[in-house]
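Weekly structure sync, notes
Attendees: PL, DS, HV (note-taker this week)

Item 1: Protein GrpE
DS walked through the input record. Source organism listed as Anoxybacteroides tepidamans. Sequence as pasted into the shared doc:
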Amino acid sequence: MEKDQKETVQVQEDVTYEQSNDSEVEVNEMQPSEGNLSTEKEELAAANEKIAELEGKLQEMEHRYLRLHADFDNFRRRTRLEFEAAEKYRAQSLVMDLLPALDNFERALKIEVEDEKAKSILQGMEMVYRALLEALKKEGVEAIESVGKPFDPHLHQAVMQVEDSNYEPNTVVEEFQKGYKLKDRVIRPAMVKVSQ
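Item 1 (cont.): predicted structure, written out as tokens:
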């Protein structure tokens, strides 16, 4: 029986010894060699460079996206404003074409006539003239007031200057051709004579 115990003890010692040898091997395998360590450092440095490069590209793309977004917002706002202006001043080309006809009506209405037939024709012309003015007024066209008003280069075009004691300096004395505004835009300045 003592012999059996000794063998058991011997067997247990062998197992223990083998286990300790295995542990040493595992510890040796976990510690990298110098060659492996430098390779891992190089790979890590390359990976960090790649990350920095990708972050730079991402930041550049974000800036590009923000610029494009701002450009698109500006384009959309500009397009909306152009559309609103086109809608607001849609009658401008028609009004510009009608202004010479209005001028001719005004000149014709200043003629003095004594014949009854001519008076009736003149009366019909005056009715057409008033109808034209009303139609233009509905579209936002209005005549620029000039005589007796201070000269404004945005509203008036001075073609003559005179010395007139009845008017203060830089005042419109006479109007040669009417000026017109479409809403808040001057489409034709008034042609005027201004006092010095």
